[in-house]
Amino acid sequence: MVSQQPTAGELLREVTDLLGPDAAELSEEDSLIEWGLDSIQLMQVANKWRRRGIKVGFAQLAKRPTLAGWREVLAEAAGVAPEPAVTVKVDETEPFPLALMQHAYWIGRDEETNLGSVAAHLYVEFDGRDVDPARLQRAVQALVERHGMLRAKFTDDGRQQILPARTQPALVVHDIADEQELERIRDRSSHARLDVAEGEVFWIQLSRLPDGRTRLHVDVDMLAADALSYRILLSDLARFYDNPEFEPIGYSYPRYLAEHELTRKVDRERAREWWQQRVPELPAAPDLPLVPESERGDATRVTRRHHWLAPEDRKRLGARAHEHGLTPAMVVATAFAESLAAWSAQPRFLLNLPMFDRETTHPEVEKLVGDFTSSVLLEVDFTEEASFVDHARALQDRMHADAAHAAYSGVEVLRDLSRHQGEQVLAPVVFTSALNLGELFDAEVRRCFGEAVWIISQGPQVLLDAQVTEVNEGLLINWDVRENAFPAGMIDEMFAAFHRLITRLGQEDDAWDQPVGGLLPAAQAAVRAKANDTAGPRSGKLLHDGFFEHARQNPEATALVWSEGSMSYGELADKALRIAATLKPHDIVGVSLPKGPDQIAAVLGVLAAGGTYVPIGIDQPRARAERIRRIAGIEHTLTSADVAAEPLAEPVRVDEESIAYVLFTSGSTGEPKGVEVPHRAAMNTIEDLNERFGVGPSDRCLAVSALDFDLSVYDIFGLLSAGGAVALVEEGDRRDARAWAELVASRGVTLVNCVPALLDMLLVSARPGELTGLRTVLLGGDWVGTDLPGRVAAHAPRCRFAGLGGTTETAIHSTVCEVHGVPAHWRSVPYGTPLRNVACRVVDARGRDCSDWVGGELWIGGDGVARGYRGDPERTADRFVEYEGRRWYRTGDLARYWPDGTLEFLGRRDHQVKVRGVRIELGEVEAALAEHPAVRRGVAGVAGNQLVAAVAGAVTPEEVREFARGLLPPHMVPARVVVLDELPLTANGKVDRRTVATHWATGADDYVPPKSPLEQVIAKVWAEVLGVERVGLEDPFFARGGDSVLATMIVGRLREALDTTEVTVRTLFATLTVSAMAARLTADESTPGRLDQVAEIYLEVDALSEEDLESELS
């Protein structure tokens, strides 16, 4: 017999059953979604028709949600024989396998699991009056008898078993005097971990307060009952409270699991193939700001934020949703996703959507208690700006497509992602919709026990769980959050922004048709406005004006010093003006001279002539030097200090917007890019720093930076503008830090302005007393380690220390952070706050201001911004942009704001890498490595498909990796660490990443065979279960294809092979390599040496052929 498609009348009746009698007025082309159809109803309809033999899918119905469209879908699918009923006999006293979601919950209870050590449970309190303990006791007992899963225990081999009776007390009654005692009970109960191994899967307590008040506490572990089952339990409890007699259920949860496994087999395989194709391209979880795990305090603490949408507000929101062809659930989900996107460093991410997937395989399935949930991983992509409704429609279409393949659960997809990426992958941000499932607590429950006044849920491997459900005819929207995983106050700000967006959507039509703008909280915007309120005086001076003024006023003062000589202001001015006499105004002049007084004179001479100087390092490859000359349009290159017989009478006056210098940096295309910096921009930086640090005629600066590096601009003009002197490091001593220290000591250097690596070299080389004269250290151009302020203070106790941030395109430095102590939470010295007449923004991919703690691109605006790139209008237009009447430079640097308005540098955007599909910011890894007390500096990179690192310091690779595990999530811990005496540096003193990369040999993947019998057995079992030819001692579990299910199988096999119960899933997840697992088992074994002995016997027996084995046994 084949199935028949429903008649027009039957189809309309089915729709009106779902949508109510008003749906009888539907036309053939009316959108059913606009009439209120939602995803849960779509799934119910698809399941119902499939059982009748009509092979229609969720996505097909969702794609054509009209009566006419459904009729076409049904016509195409009809004519198939109905699915035969599947009946499986199950011995319900025997252990049976866990469902997929149950297994995930069970694994997540383990302390060694990432984001684990948490029981999945739902806790509710009902505030009522005069609840009778005796009646409640009988009701609870009847509930336990009715539902086998309330008597279930969960064994340590990953299975479950229904016991004949519950061993723990069914009800606990408290007589309490006040609210404080009530809070203590709540605090203890709401985050409890029930002893599921002993059959404790729920806990009901009754607190009796004065004046007849009662408080019913109901806590259920979700291993035994999902959220829908929780409703059934409470409903049954209320009915048993009134009447203990109830018809028994003629069906069971173990039987359902067995039959469900068979009925979904074909669908599951099709869905698996679909998801397999998507796995390589799926994004990661939302990249939200997180507190390092080692700093989280109680990492398992869950708190709740909630908002109740009143019935009239719910009706308005639903009506607007339906007008746009959207379900209310998808509107709330999109608002949640928009809020996440505003706090995520990446606008493309995965949401974990639980699905209430209770398939009606039997008439009494709806009465059962158990875990019937599945999940879908929903890809959110808000990279492109679009209106709210366009984002919501795209997300709804994506969800319909994904849910159509939900037969292959999100739990299974995560396992596939873990295998693909070689490490455990989580989807810890969850959105759960229970709309159209009816009231959360029915009227009978509320009549018997009172109103629900406290609700909280928690789950393992979950950071944030947003839920929407029906309560008192309105909508209750909850966020359950791992509180200590996030920076203080952040979740409150996120939830407030989410709440504001939901409110706007219910009240304003415009909110649907426009993009969701910035969700930056007003208080944060005010802090940043204050930090950016930097307006100050502008002198209008040129770079060289101050020098020539001092030369006229005090020509005998010392301008330059070096190891064996010095030069006065008068002498230097005369030489510069003689060079200027050989040049013409507005000339573009190359300067290619070794470090020393001639180089300084040449630069001053070019500027005095009204020209622009372009540094060309004397060690530049000839081809690159020629490209610089061509791009810059250089008319003349100074390669010696040739001078005219007569000096120029006085410097040529040019406008402050004239280009003072063009500095060439490396371009991503291989073509060097020349940054045109006007006098105005550079002088803004110089004047701020000189005033801020009191730089004057008594100061001398160590000029260690190369002329083609922008820090040299301050070395020269910062000091010469103030009447101070420049201590020149000569060309032959550029890399000799010992010579620098001697120069500092012998020439009375008071100020050092350089990159951190060069300061580190100076500190290492200096002898006691050589640096005591330093009074100011300015560091920029790279990460500033938190160890440096203390190390400087040890040499020069009264020295001021500041970290500066900026780019060549924003005139040397743009931000400053003077260090007066290093707080424990600093990973590096932050960028700080803007200099005078400078402003900063941190923006997301859509150009919106990022909230505190959220990483985004740093934009710098104000007087320090360069004109652009020489001869490259396209690149200039791309990087230099207008916003709100101000010109900004898009730095390509990643930064974030702290709540006090401080900017923290996170690294270069082009230092983000993907390792097995997961985006990693190398700067964050490097900052964590540098926190190790024995590491002077660390650098991270990628070799093959592994994250790797190199460090300089007296430390072992494993010590570094172990330290990093305490600060970084598992996927950011380097798989291999190389220890070097020193990290190689570029000519500008930055880490030479290309040279470091040569130390990351590909031999890191070499196979290391197991040695001891125990190691051999573990490796053998791993290989057999993982389906690989062999497993080496140091092969990572997830990289070899492991997942939580296979971990459970491995544990079972090892227990059998080693004749022990001491092997647990916890052991495996705590170690993750054969070597570490063997070491842990050996350290923990109760009888030392026994496991190796048993392993040796096992290997001997395993090596025997079947004939040999039979012979031995006989």
Automatic annotation (TrEMBL):
It comes from the Bacteria. Its cofactor is pantetheine 4'-phosphate. Residues 2-78, 1009-1085 form the Carrier domain. Pathway: Siderophore biosynthesis; mycobactin biosynthesis. InterPro entries: AA_adenyl_dom, ACP-like_sf, AMP-bd_C, AMP-bd_C_sf, AMP-binding_CS, AMP-dep_synth/lig_dom, ANL_N_sf, CAT-like_dom_sf. Keywords: Ligase, Phosphopantetheine, Phosphoprotein. One of its GO terms (cellular component) is cytoplasm. It holds the Pfam family AMP-binding_C. One of its GO terms (molecular function) is ligase activity. One of its GO terms (biological process) is secondary metabolite biosynthetic process. Belongs to the ATP-dependent AMP-binding enzyme family. MbtB subfamily. This is Phenyloxazoline synthase MbtB. It comes from Amycolatopsis bartoniae. The lineage of its organism: Bacteria, Bacillati, Actinomycetota, Actinomycetes, Pseudonocardiales.
